[in-house]
């Protein structure tokens, strides 16, 4: 059974950095495309970034381009989201998701497995 566990969230000041981790178990991570999503209170869950299983190609939402970087370590079954220059509007619960699709998209309905989320709060 595929299980995903996010970690690394917390409280950070504007301009600061955090690195989120998504640890996968019960799966050979090489075969899965992984996405990061976020959901702020009262808002829809939105795609932030993803990395494909096919060729490691990536996707970033316009709101995070140039600030966030996704990477994967298949040997450790972990995907990371490095978040720099954080802004208050990045505050949300961040989720990782996995799917056997080989193409990476930021569309939440295309992901089958989900983690429980980790809270990121950007505030002074």
Descriptive report:
The chain is an all-beta fold and 124 residues long. Helix content is 0%, strand content 48%. The chain contains no helices and eleven strands. The chain has strands spanning 3-7, 10-12, 18-25, 33-39, 46-51, 58-60, 68-73, 78-83, 92-99, 113-114, 118-122. Strands 2, 4, 5, 6, 9, 10 and 11 form a seven-stranded mixed beta sheet that branches. It has a four-stranded antiparallel beta sheet with strand order 1-3-8-7, with no helix packed on it. A hairpin with a 4-residue loop joins strand 7 and strand 8 (78-83). The protein is globular and about 40 Å long. The mean pLDDT is 95.
Specify the structural class. Answer: mainly beta
SS strand fraction:
over 45%
Helix % is: under 10%
Distance between the first and last residues' Cα: 40 Å
Main beta sheet, described?
7 strands, mixed
Shape: globular
Q: Helix and strand succession?
A: EEEEEEEEEEE
Mean pLDDT: 95
- Catalogue the unreliable spans: none
- How many individual β-strands? 11
Radius of gyration: 13 Å
């Amino acid at each position: 059974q595929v299980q995903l566990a996010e970690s690394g969230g917390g409280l950070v000041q504007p301009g600061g950095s955090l690195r989120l981790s998504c640890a996968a178990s019960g799966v050979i991570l090489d075969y899965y495309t992984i996405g990061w999503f976020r959901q702020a209170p009262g808002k829809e869950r939105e795609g932030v970034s993803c990395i494909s299983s096919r060729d490691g190609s990536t996707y970033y939402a316009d709101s995070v381009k140039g600030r966030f970087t996704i990477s994967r370590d298949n040997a450790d079954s972990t995907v990371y989201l490095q978040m720099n220059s954080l802004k208050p509007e990045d505050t949300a619960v961040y989720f990782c998701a996995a799917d056997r699709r080989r193409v990476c998209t930021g569309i939440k309905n295309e992901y089958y497995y989900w983690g429980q989320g980790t809270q990121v709060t950007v505030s002074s």
